[in-house]
Amino acid sequence: MITAWINSHLLSFLVFAPLLWGLALLPLSERQAPLAKLLGLLGSLGVFVVAAVQLLHLPADALGQICAERFPWFTAVGIPVDYHLAVDGLNLWLVLLTTFLVPLTLLGTWNSISQRAGTAFALFLMLETGMLGALVAQDLLLFYLFWEAMLLPMYFLIGVWGGDERKYAATKFVLFTLSGSLLWLVALLYLAGKAGSFAPGVMAQTVAGLPFTTQSTLFLAFALAFAIKVPLFPLHTWLPDAHTQAPTGGSVILAGVLLKLGSYGFLRFALPMFPAAAVHFAQLLALLSVAAIVYGALVAMVQTDIKKLVAYSSVSHMGFIMLGIASMTVLGTQGAMLQMLNHGISTGALFLLVGMLYDRAHTRRIADFGGVALKMPVFTAFFLIVTLSSIGLPLTNGFVGEFMILNGTYTSSFPWGRAVACVATLGVLLSAVYLLWMVKRVFWGPANAGEDSGTAHLHDDLNVREIMVMLPIVGLIFWMGIHPQTFLWQSEGQVTRMLSEVKR
Amino acid sequence: MILTPAELSAILPLLIPAMGACLLPIACLDSDQATVKWIRASMFLIALVALTGAFFYLTRLWATGAQPSFGALHMDRLAQFGGIFVLVAAALAVLQLWDHLHQEGWVKGETLALLLFSVVGMMLFAASGNLLVLFLALELLSLPLYALTATVRLRAKAMEGGMKYFLTGAVASAIFLMGSVLLYGATGSLDIAVIGARLGQGPVDPVALAGAALLLLGFLFKMSVVPFHQWTPDVYEAAPHPIAGFMSVATKGVAVLALMRVMAVGLPAVGPRMRAALAVLAVLSLVLGNLAALAQTSIKRMLAYSSISHAGYLLLGLVAATPAAYAGMLFYLLAYLAMNMGAFGVLSAFGLVGDQATFDQLKGLGWKRPGLGIAVSLCMFSLAGLPPMAGFYGKYMIFKELILQGHVGLAVLGVLASLVSVYYYLAVPVALFMDKPSGQEQREAAERPAVLAPLAGATVLICGFLVLAMGLMPGTIMDGFARRAVQDSLTIVP
Predict the structure, then answer these.
(1) In Å, what is the CA distance from A89 to each residue of A264, A270, A406, A408, A489?
(2) What angle do CA B293, B295, B298 make, to 5 degrees?
(3) What does pTM read for this prediction?
């Protein structure tokens, strides 16, 4: 009976099971933290297994219909709000990425959180609910609610378990995100008032009848909220703070999933709902993306803190994703979607690895290391693979995504497409520079001879738990690099359809 | 005079707390009230019984759909809503007072009697359709509050606050009365329905316009709208925490309800002009309230400025002036009741006594009492308007109507103001969960006896639960309660 219920309410189960599981963990006391951690890990693994088993066998052409739930939720003041969840080509892999990353994060940060670990694990599960809900929500108000619901667990994760500047970083994170989403709410309510519905399809029809200036204003309000989340240059300033202060797990989820929701918002809502405005502003988006690529890379180059370097590399890589979306070509958009997965896996893994290093050395300053390769060969091997995938070496996932995005931009219809693509290619080169230079200073060469240096504190290589975390990630890196088709075929039809409608 | 059953049922909800209020001083006569616990307990019990009695009577009236009236007193759905609202707030305040007054070492029965008299005044304020009765109700609700502010009269700050409140309040009442006089002069009636009909007949007399403006001023003072807000921080700081919470919720609430009634029934003819003025005042309240709250170190002063900004949000609903906006305001008031009583209640629950209650004193307490910490954090998120808490829907409904009426600029300003407010509301969870007390503070905390405030704690938990429940089921509250109160009582001419 339970399996039958899960089958018919699969998405509700996926979305709310982590929340309920997390709430159940909250009453466990500090002494029962190991039990809470174990239960949290098992719960998130269970969600991942259910998601993988149930979602992967769905036929691509019927995704949006088969796996959907819809019923009216409430009609406050005249406008009905639907509880409408669905999985389709756009969000299928992001849902799987989320459910995949949460158990890995929990396992990866098993010992990093010393105090109140049970509560932290519960918050991760609640965060999973927010993320999955936002990914599968098809009604805009529902999407908005889940979007905001993601804030609070992350806020506490950064603010309670973060570094020294955690309060500043947590508050900045919330204020930045809210400043975008509140203005977006006004646009949303304006549109809902005109359309009498929160369904994106109905709203899109209403938008088509509005004057172009109104359309552009509404599009910009939507774009602002999503661009802050991505984060697009010059709205990225909250990200380095949040990343450096957040605990390892928080950084992984932040980079792995939360940022993706911004670019996902563009794909799911901003583009299809405002086709005219989107085409009009595509060039601006592309230019900002290129600025993010180059700027993020240049700033990453001069960082002295490994985690901050990875954070700025995120800015640069998310620029690629936005460039792919802005190119408005099928190739570029699909590349962006693949790159979302790539970035989630590669950067998530980088944050995990930096966390493992920090757990041992209690420092993240590049100058404190050197010669780590001799002390931790296994760790070095993993770090190198992930770094190379982040740079975009052929055979790894990064190459496929960046190639598709650059190719799509090059063939896109707007005037400076080729120039933009050329400048963006520079970003690939720069990412090799800053990442390999960091690897050189941390892993090769002589060790920092100081008594308190990071290298001096490194005694053991990765243990079995940590290797178990990294193996699936490395497996995916190569799978996506060698056979990206696995991750692309579900979305091809939908993206083609969407873009042909946008361009019409 | 013999009352008909309908007339009796119209005034019974007021009589029940009034009788409680008259009974209480008898219990206070006993000089042992400070020493004998059961006398104190019985006083609180009398107050609670009176409040719950009136509450159940009103809910029964609501369920049967009866809307009796007695002269100028209209116990219609709007007034019933107001009564229920005030009674719940008062009951929460009484529960919190038990703990708070014990912490202060100042348990006096007259506090409760004054509170009940004020409750009667508030219920009458929300129900009356006559300017003179309105004025009487205003005085009946205000005078006990002036005294309540100075309850712990050994403290200099308390006396100062009470005095300040009394002087400014008396001026506001006088202005309110002047407004009624001018309206009476212009229309020849004190009944707001008659005033509305006569004003609607021709071009509006300037005297009537001046009268209406002065009348509004009285309401705006009670709502603590800028520029009639200066008393608010000092008075909240001086008053006992539960009384401050009660004032911020119930006074503002009934002032909004009465203002709604007066605007919709008595002054539709001058509505557009009044709304233009209200929009300006709303903007001022939002800007000043939120910016001033940013700079506060005392939680009570922060909450006082936050209450000024919430008055601004409520005024925005009056600016939109559609039935849906009014219903949204009622929902907002319910949300505000839960979240603000929770916010003030936590001060008693954590045993912060005296006129200072700073963020520093909350440091690290969330981990000691996680339930309370989570509940009050929910209240703070709700005050900041974060979904899925009740406060979000209150703002959502008001902003939506504003946008539909074409006031997009006001809506944008409103959301930006609530963005600013996020910063200071988050300061409470930051202090509770993210700050670590310094060594000195830890030692001092260890020396103090552990605070046991079961009743105040329970009210905070209830408030946290309500905030979440209303946020998850906004439709139920909206359709079953807020919208019907507006629909069945007011005919709103757009």
Answers:
(1) 12, 17, 22, 19, 8
(2) 75
(3) 0.90
Examine residue B283 and state whether it is found in any structural domain, yes or no: yes
> Considering only CB atoms, which residues of chain B are within 8 Å of chain A?
324, 327-328, 367, 370, 381, 386-388, 392-393, 396-397, 399-401, 403-404, 408, 411-412, 415-416, 418-419, 422-423, 426, 429-430, 433-435, 473-476, 478
Q: What is the ipTM of this complex?
A: 0.85
Looking at chain A, how many residues does it have?
Answer: 504
**How much is the pLDDT for A164?**
84
Write out pLDDT tens, residues A477-503.
999 888 888 888 888 888 888 888 887
Domain assignment present for residue B163? The answer is yes
A76 and B397 in contact by Cβ < 8 A? Answer: yes
Output the DSSP codes for B243-261.
HHHHIIIIIHHHHHHHHHH
> How is residue A204 written in tokens?
């899109």
Helical H segments across A150-236, by residue range: 151-161, 166-195, 200-208, 212-229
Per the structure, the count of domains in chain B is 1
Q: What's the token pair of residue B196?
A: 């509305």
Alpha carbon of B244 to those of B338, B370, B446: distances in Å? Answer: 14, 25, 29
Round to whole Å and give the CA distance between A418 and A405: 12
**Cis peptide bond prior to A247, omega within 30° of 0:** no
Q: How far is the C-alpha of B353 from the C-alpha of B346, rounded, in Å? A: 12
Question: Please, what's the b/e burial string for B73-105 (b: 16 or more CB within 10 A of its CB; e: otherwise)?
Answer: bbbbbbbbbbbbbbbbbbbbbbbbbbbbbbbbe
In a domain, B494, yes or no: no
Query: For chain B, which ranges sit under pLDDT 70?
Result: 30-35, 355, 445-450, 492-494
- Domain hosting residue B379, numbered range: 5-489
CA–CA distance from A208 to each of A272, B365, B491 (Å)? 11, 53, 36
